[in-house]
Amino acid sequence: MTVGSCATGSRESGQDRKVAAFSGLARVPQIAWPSPHPAGTCDAHPGRVRERPNRHAWKACEVQASVGSNPTPSAMSDHDIHEVAMQAALEQARDALNHDDVPVGAVVLHEGKIIAARHNERENYQDPTAHAEVLALQDAAKHLGRWRLQDCTLVVTLEPCVMCAGALLNARIGSLVYGAADLKGGATASLYNVSADPRLNHNFPVTHGVLAAESTTLLEQFFASRR
Prior knowledge:
Radius of gyration: 16 Å
Oligomer: single chain
Helix content: 25-40%
Order of helices and strands: EHEEHEEHHEHEEH
Largest sheet: 6 strands, mixed
Strand content: 15-25%
Structural class: alpha/beta
Number of helices: 6
Number of strands: 8
């Protein structure tokens, strides 16, 4: 995967074709999930990511990928698969706007399928812990009948906070993919790096910057409307 320069533009024009290539439930693309160690994203030490400075609270970094005109799961690159999963998370994020919650969405993948999809519901539930990541992990654990999610990947539109990074650690998550970096509160690269702290009993690889521009736009529009 090649990480390009920071940008605020929209996703590539072929994205709709990539999403249309998958079948299944609405907003739940069925994909063949690859190894959680995409080339060029993290090194041999789990959880370590390349950090790039940015003066904004959410970092919009466009990742370049070359795809065919009619991609299939077997032909898609790691980044293409991440984009398709992130599209489902973005749909969840938009749903959060229906009850005035911060637009963050998350999905959990297991054996190539989305088994949980949630969005922030802190305002909806009046629950300070009802972040998208925590809710998605809870649903995934119920679906699998176990709390250990070492063979799952969490895909979320915004870098997890300290609470959510701790939840990922306690779930023994297999890997994390996120969109926009949270330079004010991110706990997997920006402020802290819970995912790679050698003092902890679990580390996990991180892929970042996937469809970050779309995630950033949702957040900026949400907060601008409240100023």
